[in-house]
C-alpha cells in the first residue's frame, strides 16, 4: 500500500477528530462518577452531622424545601427537622449507613441504604435501636448537592 501526502494529511485530520469523539462519549461517565463521589461525601457529612446533632451542618446540607419523612410517618420541613434533630432529647450513640447505593440522574441523585443506629434518650437513659431502609433524594443546586427529600421505612 502506498501512502501519499494527501493520505497523510487526511489522517492528521481524522485521528484527532476520532479521539475527540471518543472523549466526548466517555466524558458523561466521568462526570457522573465525580457527581456520585460528591454525593457520597455529602451523605457521609450528613451522617456525621446527625451523630453530632450539629444544627449548622444539618442546615447547610439540606435544601430549603427539604421534606424529611420519618418511619413513623411524621414529615418535617427544614426548620422542624433541624430543631428536632438537635433538641437534646436524644443522642445518637451510633449510626451506620450499610450497603449504600447512589444513582445520579441529571441534577438529581437517588441514595438508598440500610440504616442501623442506636439512640440514648435523655429523659431516662434508655437505649433505642433502629433498623430502617432509607431513601434520600439529593438535588444539585449550583455546584453543591443538597438533601431534597428523605423517607424511612421500618425493617
Main features:
155 residues; alpha+beta; Nuclear Transport Factor 2, Chain: A; 3 helices; 41% helix; globular
Question: How would you sum up this structure, described in words?
Answer:
The chain has 155 residues and is an alpha+beta fold. The protein has one domain: Nuclear Transport Factor 2, Chain: A, CATH 3.10.450. Helices cover 41% and strands 43% of the residues. The chain has helices at residues 5-52, 55-61, 78-85; strands spanning 62-69, 75-76, 90-105, 108-121, 127-141, 144-154. Strand 1 (62-69) and strand 2 form a beta hairpin. Helix 1 (5-52) runs antiparallel to helix 2. The relative contact order is 0.15.
Give the structure's gist in a few sentences.
With 155 residues, the chain is an alpha+beta fold. It has helices at 5-52, 55-61, 78-85; strands spanning 62-69, 75-76, 90-105, 108-121, 127-141, 144-154.
Query: Architecture, according to CATH?
Result: Roll
How would you sum up the global shape? globular
Query: Sheet with the most strands?
Result: 6 strands, mixed
Structural class: alpha+beta
Helix-strand topology string: HHEEHEEEE
Overall strand count:
6
Output the radius of gyration: 23 Å
CATH topology category name: Nuclear Transport Factor 2, Chain: A
Widest beta sheet: strand line-up: 2-1-6-5-4-3
Tally of individual domains: 1
Individual helix count: 3
The stretches of 5 or more residues where confidence is low (pLDDT under 50) are 10-29
- Strand content is 35-45%
